[in-house]
Fold:
Amino acid sequence: MMPPDGRKADKPYSFGVSEFTTWPNTFDADLALYSSAGVDCIEVTEFKLDHARLAEQLQSIKEFGLGVSSVQATVHSLYPDGLAGEPAAPQDRIRHIRRSIENIAPHVPAGTPFVAVTGAAPGGDVRQVYETAVPAFRELTGVCEAHGMRLAFEPLNPMLMNSDTAIWSLGDALDLVRTVGRTSFGLCVDLWNIWQSPSLGDVIREASDKMFLVQVSDYHRPRSHNDRTSLGDGEIPLASIISQIRKAAYDGPYVLEIFSGESLPNSLWRADFRDVLLRNMEAFASAWKRSDAP
Structure:
Protein backbone atom coordinates (compact mmCIF):
# COMPACT_ATOMS: atom_id res chain seq x y z
CA MET A 1 0.00 0.00 0.00
CA MET A 2 1.29 3.46 -0.91
CA PRO A 3 2.08 5.61 2.16
CA PRO A 4 0.01 8.82 2.54
CA ASP A 5 2.94 11.00 1.43
CA GLY A 6 3.57 8.84 -1.65
CA ARG A 7 7.12 7.99 -0.61
CA LYS A 8 8.79 5.41 -2.81
CA ALA A 9 10.32 2.39 -1.08
CA ASP A 10 13.83 3.23 -2.31
CA LYS A 11 13.83 6.89 -1.18
CA PRO A 12 14.80 8.28 2.25
CA TYR A 13 12.36 11.18 1.92
CA SER A 14 9.13 12.20 0.20
CA PHE A 15 9.37 15.12 -2.24
CA GLY A 16 6.16 16.96 -3.06
CA VAL A 17 5.07 19.97 -5.08
CA SER A 18 2.55 22.63 -4.11
CA GLU A 19 0.14 23.62 -6.83
CA PHE A 20 1.13 27.22 -6.13
CA THR A 21 4.42 26.33 -7.86
CA THR A 22 2.53 25.61 -11.08
CA TRP A 23 -0.16 28.26 -10.55
CA PRO A 24 -1.23 28.67 -14.23
CA ASN A 25 -1.90 24.93 -14.61
CA THR A 26 -5.25 23.23 -13.98
CA PHE A 27 -5.58 20.62 -11.25
CA ASP A 28 -5.78 17.83 -13.81
CA ALA A 29 -2.68 19.11 -15.61
CA ASP A 30 -0.81 19.23 -12.30
CA LEU A 31 -1.56 15.58 -11.57
CA ALA A 32 -0.27 14.47 -14.97
CA LEU A 33 2.84 16.67 -14.71
CA TYR A 34 3.79 15.71 -11.16
CA SER A 35 3.29 12.02 -11.81
CA SER A 36 5.36 12.03 -15.01
CA ALA A 37 8.18 13.96 -13.30
CA GLY A 38 8.45 11.42 -10.48
CA VAL A 39 7.07 13.65 -7.72
CA ASP A 40 5.89 11.73 -4.65
CA CYS A 41 3.03 13.90 -3.40
CA ILE A 42 0.94 16.99 -4.07
CA GLU A 43 -0.07 19.96 -1.96
CA VAL A 44 -3.66 20.51 -3.05
CA THR A 45 -4.78 24.10 -3.59
CA GLU A 46 -8.54 24.32 -3.29
CA PHE A 47 -8.89 27.18 -5.76
CA LYS A 48 -7.97 24.79 -8.60
CA LEU A 49 -10.68 22.27 -7.72
CA ASP A 50 -13.98 22.10 -9.57
CA HIS A 51 -16.40 21.61 -6.68
CA ALA A 52 -18.84 19.83 -8.98
CA ARG A 53 -16.07 17.23 -9.50
CA LEU A 54 -14.35 17.53 -6.13
CA ALA A 55 -14.63 13.89 -5.06
CA GLU A 56 -13.64 12.62 -8.50
CA GLN A 57 -10.64 14.94 -8.73
CA LEU A 58 -9.32 14.16 -5.27
CA GLN A 59 -9.77 10.44 -5.73
CA SER A 60 -7.78 10.64 -8.97
CA ILE A 61 -4.67 11.70 -7.03
CA LYS A 62 -4.06 8.10 -6.01
CA GLU A 63 -4.65 6.91 -9.58
CA PHE A 64 -1.67 9.04 -10.64
CA GLY A 65 0.49 7.38 -7.98
CA LEU A 66 0.68 10.50 -5.81
CA GLY A 67 0.23 11.02 -2.10
CA VAL A 68 -1.17 14.18 -0.48
CA SER A 69 1.23 16.28 1.57
CA SER A 70 -1.18 19.01 2.63
CA VAL A 71 -4.12 21.20 1.62
CA GLN A 72 -4.31 24.97 1.04
CA ALA A 73 -7.91 26.12 1.40
CA THR A 74 -9.04 29.02 -0.79
CA VAL A 75 -9.49 31.06 2.40
CA HIS A 76 -6.76 29.96 4.78
CA SER A 77 -6.18 33.03 6.96
CA LEU A 78 -8.13 34.48 9.90
CA TYR A 79 -7.80 38.03 8.56
CA PRO A 80 -7.58 39.17 4.92
CA ASP A 81 -4.36 38.33 3.10
CA GLY A 82 -2.93 38.57 -0.39
CA LEU A 83 -4.58 35.35 -1.53
CA ALA A 84 -8.10 36.09 -0.27
CA GLY A 85 -9.14 39.62 0.63
CA GLU A 86 -12.76 38.70 1.30
CA PRO A 87 -14.66 38.15 3.50
CA ALA A 88 -13.23 40.64 5.97
CA ALA A 89 -14.57 39.40 9.31
CA PRO A 90 -12.62 36.62 11.05
CA GLN A 91 -15.77 34.65 11.93
CA ASP A 92 -16.83 34.61 8.28
CA ARG A 93 -13.36 33.47 7.26
CA ILE A 94 -13.39 30.74 9.92
CA ARG A 95 -16.66 29.48 8.44
CA HIS A 96 -15.01 29.29 5.01
CA ILE A 97 -12.06 27.33 6.42
CA ARG A 98 -14.40 24.99 8.30
CA ARG A 99 -16.36 24.33 5.11
CA SER A 100 -13.16 23.57 3.18
CA ILE A 101 -12.07 21.05 5.80
CA GLU A 102 -15.48 19.39 5.83
CA ASN A 103 -15.62 19.16 2.03
CA ILE A 104 -12.07 17.96 1.36
CA ALA A 105 -11.27 15.78 4.38
CA PRO A 106 -13.31 12.74 3.29
CA HIS A 107 -11.21 12.46 0.13
CA VAL A 108 -7.62 12.81 1.43
CA PRO A 109 -5.53 10.56 3.71
CA ALA A 110 -6.03 10.64 7.47
CA GLY A 111 -3.76 13.13 9.20
CA THR A 112 -3.40 15.42 6.19
CA PRO A 113 -2.51 18.94 7.42
CA PHE A 114 -4.54 21.95 6.31
CA VAL A 115 -2.27 25.01 6.22
CA ALA A 116 -3.39 28.22 7.98
CA VAL A 117 -1.94 31.70 8.51
CA THR A 118 -3.08 34.72 10.51
CA GLY A 119 -3.52 37.25 7.72
CA ALA A 120 -2.51 40.88 8.16
CA ALA A 121 -3.02 42.65 11.47
CA PRO A 122 -5.78 45.28 11.08
CA GLY A 123 -4.28 48.68 11.81
CA GLY A 124 -1.08 46.93 12.88
CA ASP A 125 -2.81 45.49 15.97
CA VAL A 126 -0.82 42.29 16.37
CA ARG A 127 -2.22 41.73 19.87
CA GLN A 128 -5.76 41.64 18.48
CA VAL A 129 -4.71 39.04 15.92
CA TYR A 130 -3.10 36.88 18.60
CA GLU A 131 -6.15 37.12 20.86
CA THR A 132 -8.34 36.11 17.93
CA ALA A 133 -5.98 33.38 16.74
CA VAL A 134 -5.79 31.31 19.92
CA PRO A 135 -9.52 30.47 20.20
CA ALA A 136 -9.95 30.40 16.41
CA PHE A 137 -7.20 27.85 15.91
CA ARG A 138 -8.53 25.78 18.81
CA GLU A 139 -11.92 25.76 17.08
CA LEU A 140 -10.49 24.88 13.67
CA THR A 141 -8.23 22.21 15.14
CA GLY A 142 -11.35 20.67 16.65
CA VAL A 143 -12.94 20.62 13.19
CA CYS A 144 -9.82 18.97 11.79
CA GLU A 145 -9.77 16.36 14.54
CA ALA A 146 -13.44 15.55 13.98
CA HIS A 147 -12.54 14.69 10.38
CA GLY A 148 -9.22 12.95 11.04
CA MET A 149 -7.14 15.90 9.83
CA ARG A 150 -4.51 18.22 11.33
CA LEU A 151 -3.99 22.00 11.21
CA ALA A 152 -0.54 23.42 10.38
CA PHE A 153 0.18 27.06 11.21
CA GLU A 154 2.63 28.80 8.89
CA PRO A 155 4.63 31.87 9.97
CA LEU A 156 5.47 34.05 6.97
CA ASN A 157 8.48 36.08 5.88
CA PRO A 158 8.82 39.46 7.66
CA MET A 159 8.38 41.27 4.33
CA LEU A 160 4.74 40.05 4.46
CA MET A 161 3.98 41.48 7.92
CA ASN A 162 1.72 44.24 6.58
CA SER A 163 -0.05 42.18 3.95
CA ASP A 164 -0.34 38.53 4.95
CA THR A 165 0.75 37.79 8.50
CA ALA A 166 1.14 39.02 12.06
CA ILE A 167 3.66 36.31 13.02
CA TRP A 168 6.90 35.72 11.15
CA SER A 169 9.55 34.03 13.30
CA LEU A 170 9.47 30.28 13.86
CA GLY A 171 9.92 30.88 17.59
CA ASP A 172 6.82 33.08 17.80
CA ALA A 173 4.89 30.52 15.76
CA LEU A 174 5.94 27.74 18.15
CA ASP A 175 4.80 29.89 21.09
CA LEU A 176 1.38 30.20 19.44
CA VAL A 177 1.21 26.44 18.85
CA ARG A 178 2.03 25.78 22.50
CA THR A 179 -0.56 28.31 23.67
CA VAL A 180 -3.27 26.72 21.54
CA GLY A 181 -2.19 23.44 23.09
CA ARG A 182 -3.83 20.88 20.82
CA THR A 183 -2.10 17.71 19.65
CA SER A 184 -3.36 18.15 16.09
CA PHE A 185 -2.17 21.79 15.83
CA GLY A 186 1.39 22.17 14.64
CA LEU A 187 3.66 23.97 12.20
CA CYS A 188 4.17 24.35 8.49
CA VAL A 189 7.88 25.20 8.25
CA ASP A 190 8.48 27.06 4.98
CA LEU A 191 12.19 27.71 4.57
CA TRP A 192 11.67 30.86 2.48
CA ASN A 193 9.66 32.30 5.35
CA ILE A 194 11.71 31.23 8.37
CA TRP A 195 15.34 30.90 7.28
CA GLN A 196 16.24 34.25 8.88
CA SER A 197 14.46 33.47 12.18
CA PRO A 198 16.56 34.04 15.32
CA SER A 199 18.14 30.91 16.85
CA LEU A 200 16.69 28.82 14.04
CA GLY A 201 18.50 25.58 14.90
CA ASP A 202 17.41 25.75 18.54
CA VAL A 203 13.79 26.41 17.62
CA ILE A 204 13.74 23.57 15.08
CA ARG A 205 15.01 21.27 17.83
CA GLU A 206 12.32 22.51 20.24
CA ALA A 207 9.63 22.08 17.58
CA SER A 208 10.58 18.49 16.77
CA ASP A 209 7.16 17.04 17.61
CA LYS A 210 5.22 19.91 16.05
CA MET A 211 6.56 20.04 12.49
CA PHE A 212 3.75 18.72 10.31
CA LEU A 213 5.07 19.95 6.96
CA VAL A 214 8.27 21.41 5.47
CA GLN A 215 8.13 23.60 2.36
CA VAL A 216 11.18 24.49 0.30
CA SER A 217 12.24 27.11 -2.24
CA ASP A 218 15.13 29.56 -2.41
CA TYR A 219 15.46 33.25 -1.60
CA HIS A 220 16.87 36.04 -3.72
CA ARG A 221 16.23 39.74 -3.21
CA PRO A 222 12.50 39.87 -4.09
CA ARG A 223 11.05 42.03 -6.84
CA SER A 224 7.54 41.53 -5.44
CA HIS A 225 5.79 39.70 -2.62
CA ASN A 226 5.68 36.65 -4.89
CA ASP A 227 9.23 36.26 -6.15
CA ARG A 228 10.89 33.07 -4.97
CA THR A 229 13.46 31.11 -6.89
CA SER A 230 14.57 27.53 -7.49
CA LEU A 231 16.59 25.56 -4.97
CA GLY A 232 20.28 26.34 -5.24
CA ASP A 233 19.74 29.66 -7.04
CA GLY A 234 19.49 31.81 -3.91
CA GLU A 235 20.83 32.45 -0.42
CA ILE A 236 19.15 29.84 1.80
CA PRO A 237 21.66 27.33 3.28
CA LEU A 238 19.44 24.42 2.29
CA ALA A 239 21.70 21.51 3.28
CA SER A 240 22.39 23.01 6.70
CA ILE A 241 18.71 23.57 7.49
CA ILE A 242 17.75 20.12 6.19
CA SER A 243 20.40 18.72 8.53
CA GLN A 244 18.80 20.50 11.49
CA ILE A 245 15.35 19.28 10.47
CA ARG A 246 16.56 15.68 10.10
CA LYS A 247 18.23 15.82 13.51
CA ALA A 248 14.87 16.91 14.93
CA ALA A 249 13.52 13.56 13.64
CA TYR A 250 11.14 15.08 11.09
CA ASP A 251 10.07 12.36 8.68
CA GLY A 252 7.33 14.06 6.67
CA PRO A 253 7.32 15.39 3.11
CA TYR A 254 9.44 18.22 1.74
CA VAL A 255 7.21 20.25 -0.57
CA LEU A 256 8.41 22.62 -3.28
CA GLU A 257 6.39 25.84 -3.02
CA ILE A 258 7.58 28.58 -5.38
CA PHE A 259 5.51 31.71 -5.78
CA SER A 260 6.34 33.82 -8.80
CA GLY A 261 4.55 36.28 -11.07
CA GLU A 262 3.94 36.06 -14.78
CA SER A 263 4.91 39.73 -15.20
CA LEU A 264 8.35 39.23 -13.62
CA PRO A 265 11.43 38.88 -15.85
CA ASN A 266 12.43 35.20 -15.97
CA SER A 267 9.23 34.25 -14.16
CA LEU A 268 9.13 30.61 -13.12
CA TRP A 269 5.41 30.67 -13.89
CA ARG A 270 6.32 31.20 -17.58
CA ALA A 271 9.02 28.52 -17.61
CA ASP A 272 8.72 24.90 -18.69
CA PHE A 273 7.21 23.41 -15.54
CA ARG A 274 8.65 19.96 -16.11
CA ASP A 275 12.14 21.43 -16.30
CA VAL A 276 11.47 23.46 -13.15
CA LEU A 277 10.38 20.37 -11.23
CA LEU A 278 13.23 18.17 -12.41
CA ARG A 279 15.84 20.82 -11.66
CA ASN A 280 14.48 21.38 -8.15
CA MET A 281 14.21 17.66 -7.46
CA GLU A 282 17.87 17.27 -8.42
CA ALA A 283 18.90 20.24 -6.28
CA PHE A 284 17.01 18.89 -3.29
CA ALA A 285 18.57 15.44 -3.70
CA SER A 286 22.01 17.07 -3.75
CA ALA A 287 21.25 19.09 -0.61
CA TRP A 288 19.96 15.97 1.13
CA LYS A 289 23.21 14.14 0.40
CA ARG A 290 25.20 17.08 1.78
CA SER A 291 23.12 17.30 4.95
CA ASP A 292 24.45 15.45 7.97
CA ALA A 293 22.85 12.16 8.94
CA PRO A 294 20.73 12.40 12.11
About this structure: The mean pLDDT is 96.
